[in-house]
User: Fold this.
Amino acid sequence: MHILQSIIMGIVQGLSEFLPISSSAHLVITSNLYKVLKGLELTQESSQEIFLDIMLHLGTLIAVLIYFRKDIIEILKAFLSAVKSRNFSDGNAKIALYILIGTIITVVIAFPLHDVAENLVYSPAIVGLLLIFTGILLFSAEAFSKRIQDKSAKIDFKTSIFIAIAQGLAALPGFSRSGLTIATGLLNKKDRLTAARYSFLLSIPIILGASMVYPIIKIDFHEFSSYNWNAIILGTITSATVGYLCIKYFLKFVGKYSLAFFGYYCIIIGALSFVFFNLLASGV
Assistant:
């Protein structure tokens, strides 16, 4: 693995994790394009590549923790206080409870999709189709949201359940986690900023859990000594830095502008990926 490759992947992860364009799809497409340019088999995926992918996600987790550090502290304080008093009427305590329940729902839905998601890593054309679906969903959610006059700035229990289901389905590469969860918030009559902030907070336990559990299942720790650690560390730092900046400016963007731009992007990139990798598979 080259340092340039890891930095490119870090930039891609940092941007696409929080933008509604599917980070998993972009990592799949970028990785497969790199292999095509290098003349490698699309089915080749080393232990080092898997570990890099985990570290890139850990980088974006660091970005979320730093950006929302004050919110996270307030939510945790409210939750602990609510547990002691058995009173969850406080707004932050409710958010903590919603995130806890939402994480469980996400795992229940995402776990059975694990094998399908892994196989899609080697099927970038199908990932492109799922990316097109993400774009269509963003358009539909925006169109619905524009017809709603009174949008809520609070997440309720019902909405949190629907968003958790959306996050679970986003285990499939091409289904954007932020895209599906934000769109679900819009379809439940929430404003874009509220949906986006909750989407980012809900991602924390899942990314943290995946970063801890996935290596135990997939990584051969005996190979660690052969890894290019300079590349892995630089990729992780790049992912965290780009991810932090992306959160900061994306939240400003969604507060003012439509998500239709990202819908166009997903459809175009998805269609190009579908056509390109299908042609490649047919030997054209």
